Amino acid sequence: MSTVESRDVRGSRDAAPVIGTGMDRVDGARKTAGAAGYPSDVQLPGQTHAALVQSTVAAGRIRTLETAAAEASPGVLTVMTHRNAPRLPDGPMTALGASPPAPLRDDRILHHGQHIALVVAETPEQAAAAARLVRVTYDTSDPVLGLDDPRAERMDNPWGMDADRGDPAEAVRTAEAKVSGTWTTPDNTNNPLGLFATVAVWERDALTVHDSTQWPTMGRVTLAKVFDVPESAVRVLAPYVGGAFGAGLRVWPHVILAALAARVLRRPVKLVLTRAQMFTSVGHRPSTVQHLTVASTGTGELVALDHRCTSGVAMEDDDFEPCAATSALAYACPNVITRDVQLRLNIPDPTSMRAPAVGQGNFALESALDELAHSLSTDPLELRLRNYAAEHPGNGLPWSSNALRECYEAGAERFGWSRRDPEPRSMRDGDELVGYGMAGVSYPWYAQPCKARATVNSDGSAFVRSAATDIGTGTYTVMTQVSADTLGIPPGRVRFDLGDSDMPQSPQAGGSGLTGALATAVRDACRGVLGRILDLVRDDSESPLRGCTIGDVTVGGGRMHLRGRPAEGESYADILARHGQVEVTADGASTPADAAELGMAPAGAFGAKFVEVRVDADLGVIRVPRVVSAIDGGQILNEKTARSQIIGGTVGGIGQALFEETVTDAGTGRIANATFGDYLVPVNADVTQMDVLFVGDPDRATPLGTKGVGEIGLVGIAAAVANAVHHATGTRVRSLPVTLDQLL
Amino acid sequence: MLPFEYARVTGVDEAVNLLAADPSASYLAGGTTQLDLMKDGVLGPERLVDITRLPLRGVTRDADGLHIGALTTMEELAADPVVAGELPVVREALLLGASAQLRNMATIGGNLLQRARCRYFRDPTVPDCNKREPGSGCAAVRNTARMHAILGVSERCIALHASDLAVALVALDAVVRLHGTSGSRSVPLTQFYREAGTSPDVENVLLHGELITGVTIPPLPAEAATGYLKVRDRASYEFALASAAVVLVMRDDVIAQARVGLGGIGSKPWRSLEAEQVLTGAAASGEIFREAAAAAVQGAWTVPGTAFKVELAQRTLVRALRNVSGGAR
């Protein structure tokens, strides 16, 4: 079942396609050899080093701020505070909401860990040591920290996505079965392995920033506005990023501080966050409290869904977490109400963390459905199949692709779901209670415009680029494959480059939207080059291709020939040489699919997750020996990197299910577990057998048939684990993470 | 900057004299605790005396037992053939601790002296920590404290002694050898540590300058069975939520001798004479194990975050007793 259905979506080509194959990462050797330069590796002549001073209270005002000792400390060049820093404007609106507030605006403290000073010195050690010498006192006020704090400012329907269909109240009242409950998810911290780093340098009035970002184009626009320079004077570089999981989707205050210090000092400034600062400076998945009711007929057909979610947001920032809203689009259900509410808290800025909103909302929804299935003595898998949404539940349009049923079937088969005894606590192996749990996932579609540029050189090699990023996902590799196939040039003769805002604009690596947008733009650019090469020979009496259009030719092996007549063609190198061209370049673009135009609802990925847990009957210790993920990701561009995406997401899902919880101290707002020893993520021993199956057909809404697979790997694991824990033990846990003390 | 002097010594007396003469000096061995705490700003010694060149590394055996040099690393001790063959409780406790990288650096002496993992102790921006600033209070007590201790603690301090190895060693009646300016002495490990009590900042009986030179594990009866059970959320690289080190000598079904160490719950590596008293002379059964476990947690002092450990510790001990006794239920 792991084969990828293929359709000729790639145009006419001679050689065997490299799209779809599990081609090794083109950047793999560079990374394993330590030759890939991450932002923290950047060293510039004359570079200085910065260290942050952060607030140790969550709310109030700075009363006194003594910097003299720090300024006098060896090697220190400057100490920037709100008292001496120039006032900067906030960054612009982005596709993901407003920019975070500018740093060092005033003496107000809005959260524990807020940056209140930046110390710059000749060495990182001098900067860190001097940062400790900055003495701060505060006039503190009582912080608003909890979702249960009545003082918190409340924002209803902050994203305008609340859904209302039918009459859910009446449907619940008359339903034959219903489950109602409250589910909670804690704060989680993105915690990419790579510490976020920024190196900023000004040359005359031009700013170059090396940054751990998922979105160089947005970085350029933001920094230009903040520093009031033309966008053409700003360059953001991120050729390699050591993971991000959403933390790199914004231009954070520390990035602006580094650029500001570099301008003040007229020297390059490097700032590498500490692990503890990673918990307060680059976002986190905000905690939620979710009230959910699902109601059905006696045979499990959903009649009503009522999902209300409250999450936290920082005092003066935005975050996009419509957890409840995503439930409205998961199942066929005539009566639906979703309500999302945000509360303003004295917490560090939340931001997208792999599968924002869906990651939390799916836990509540898929847990509730498991409870409903249990109450009806219906197989949880059967319940999902009965409520399969054959059309898009929001607009009633047919899906551009939807193989969710195939996901359930293939996943169940691979997992051995039929061996499940439905009775909780009925499967046992020695001291271990064995549980099987599952969950469905309907991941939202997301797309943004994208551009790319392709060049064929005089030697017949190709250079293709876009300002995208590869945060470990495989973008370098799959775009090399798309370029190679479209141009008919072997992958080894194609260089795909990214991570530079001077390249054509790209959307963020986020929202599971980059591959679809970028692959389409890359293909368009490559086809543009083919067209220009044909333009060269249009009236060329020496060329067998004269007068041809792109539809008349086949590409392969670095050459073009007439369709069906391989002898009648010539190489790109020959054409360019004869026409005195050193290179031929074309730009390409993609725009998001339009549902109305298509007459279809563009679909995101679908998935079914099956999990086996083992719970020690006495000790409560929970282990996950086995996960099967069946994914409809449309056309898979690279079997290997796509599989790795799902595996990585699964690891994140296990973390969300069993381990991850950012703990905030009541009263002070301090994060109490900001280390990798205390904030638990899965280790290798926690992730054993992870099967991935790809099913389904190429999607009809994108030219290459792709759907994003960056986030769906995570979603559903938490619910499937909690459902499996119930099956194993008979205990329902509605609060993440599921830990052994809840099972004693 | 945090300026400190670094001195490397080659003789034990040289080390002890250097340190004893300087109240602000500390020893440096594997550094896996010392350097972390310096980087975190918790410790600020003005001089580090590097003892890694001292001839205190290696394991020997004689009629008095197994002698472990204080600078033997955790991995070296785990790989020792006597430990591997006859002391599973030590080997298991070692290999379930930390990570391979840390075990390759961390020494046995340092392991016994590891400081609390409490995030309130380890963060100088938290003002109230009696272990760091005597008399300042305890922030952990009123906050989330899942990793904290329930025995030998009070509202003054609930920090856990997180060592796995030391739990096994207290159960084995290990003795630490100390060397100071006035000579050498031996202290049973059970008397080496102090409960948090009224002075959580004083964790053991070491005098300033005194150096742990080694640990001796007395011989066990040939028929003794041992085992270590560690319970935690994730499968590796986490401190124990509860653990138990058990030494049993069985005569048929009767427990002739029992020694019980408990981890994950004490302000010091916990030896439970109470549990041993219940077990000794009794026929092995699930019932007697549960009775022993209940005796072990008498006097537990909990906060909401640690309350579950009272039950978990008992179940952990019951399971460990069952495992080591050969399966009595």
TrEMBL record, chain B:
Top-rank lineage group of the source organism: Bacteria
Pfam families found in the cross-reference section: CO_deh_flav_C (PF03450), FAD_binding_5 (PF00941)
InterPro entries: CO_DH_flav_C, CO_DH_flav_C_dom_sf, Diverse_Substr_Oxidored, FAD-bd_PCMH, FAD-bd_PCMH-like_sf, FAD-bd_PCMH_sub1, FAD-bd_PCMH_sub2, Mopterin_DH_FAD-bd
GO molecular function, one term: oxidoreductase activity
Gene3D superfamilies associated with the record: 3.30.465.10, CO dehydrogenase flavoprotein, C-terminal domain, Uridine Diphospho-n-acetylenolpyruvylglucosamine Reductase, domain 2
Name of the protein in question: FAD-binding molybdopterin dehydrogenase
Record keywords: Oxidoreductase
PANTHER family with a match to the protein in the record: OXIDOREDUCTASE, XANTHINE DEHYDROGENASE SUBUNIT C-RELATED
Keyword Hydrolase carried by entry: no
Domain FAD-binding PCMH-type: 1-222
